[in-house]
Amino acid sequence: MTSTTLTRAGFLRAALGGGATAAGGIALGSRGGSTEASPSRSTDAEILNVFLALEHAQEDFYRAALAADAIDQPLREYATAAAGQENEHIAFLREHLGGRARPHQKVDAGDAVRSPARFRASAIALEEAAIGAYIGQGANLTTPMIAAIAPLISVEARQAAWIRDLAGVSPAPRAADAPRRSAAVLADLRAKGLIG
Amino acid sequence: MITLGELDRDEALLEAIARLCGPTRAELLRTTALGGAAMLAVLVARPASAEAALSDVDILNFGLRFERLQSTFYTQADEMGTIGRMSNPKQTWAETLGAHERAHVKIIASVLGPKAGPKPSFDFGNATETDADFTRTAVAMEDLTVALLTGVTPRIHDRRLTAALFGLLTVEARHASWARHIVGATPAPAAFDEPRTLDSVSGAVKRTHFITGAPKMTSSSSPNFTG
To answer: Do B170 and A153 touch (CB under 8 A)?
Structure first.
């Protein structure tokens, strides 16, 4: 359950494999001869748009669950807090994206908000997806954006632990969270009907 | 939840605040939940330029010291039987956090290799002896770790390490959230966590007097935050 066997190689490979190199964005301080783009304003916009889509999916989901009235306390307290926080994250991302923000595609949460059990499972899927994508893409941002985004990433992890605890599963199942490719994260959520 | 008065054992910080802002302000802060980390950071942080020259090795070594502090704290509470006397859910929580912090020490030490600093000695006083003291300290430490990692991760130069530290930051944030939930506090109190500078975290750790022996750093780049 708790991973205590991470090696240096594994640690860096995790960071590299799923994140940095996969996203194709980083110049590792290394002169590795990478021809891929270094962090730049346009890379930032690409990445922030992925984050924006994830934050919208989360807020929409929580608002739909609250409106559907299918959840009671303490899930309502969680959903209310998380919806408000995602809303602030969206405002923050939109402020940085300006005219580069992509239009928001709303999705019908449907069955995902019809029962407490479905709500818990979908909320965990959304929060874990966001964490994986943020870790996977965060290091590809320009340095000022990394500084701006770090205090938001930790809050996504706080939300994940909170809903996991409410669902009766370990809030912190690993010693280190893994990066995920944003395309895989988005495809996964699309398959679950949780993102547009 | 955790107040400045609880963290600031010898009241050095509160005295400084009293001098700056008056005794009423200090008294208010003594019992105010430590959410105002931003203000604390302003009060105790040095100018940003003092940290501008930090190398990745400096930052990782500070992280290593901090993870060692945490892992020793959990291990000691375990060995003293404090964790064993707690309720089942709290045992699972404390044991998981201990296992993770020990793993983080291994991870960071192996990344640093021979550049890893020596292990300091610790004295947690009563903090590892009773459920209440242990829990209160754990909540404060986990929130402090989140503040530290949100503050220093952007200062890392090697982007592979940035990604890796994000993967530790999210786990520390899970810990903090879990700890707050256990004590009945809001797990995610705000939309953004307050980043803190390395020096400000170093100052907070120093005031706990948990680190009693700080061996000289072997690295040639001698950081100015050894406590």
So the answer is: yes
| Interatomic CA distance for residues B184 and B178, integer angstroms | 10
Q: CB contact, 8 Å: B164 with chain A?
A: yes
Please say whether the beta carbons of B64 and B117 come within 8 A.
yes
Range with the poorest average pLDDT among A44-53, A128-137, B181-190, B204-213: B204-213
Which candidate, A106, A123, A107, places its Cα nearest to that of A70?
A123
- ipTM associated with this complex: 0.84
Confidence (pTM): 0.79
CB count, 10 Å around CB of A3?
14
Residues of A in contact with B103 (CB under 8 A): 2-4, 6, 175-176
Q: What is the pLDDT of residues B6-52, one digit of tens each?
A: 555 555 555 554 544 445 545 555 555 444 444 444 344 433 444 56
Nearest alpha-carbon partner for B60 in B133, B117, B103:
B117
Contact B146 A154 (CB under 8 A): yes
Q: Which residues of B204-223 are buried (b: 16+ CB within 10 A; e: fewer)?
A: bbbbbebbeeeeebebeeeb
Residues B160, A134: C-beta atoms closer than 8 Å = no
Contact B94, B134 (CB under 8 A): yes
CB B177 to CB A19 under 8 A? no
A172 backbone dihedrals φ, ψ, rounded to 5°: -135, 85
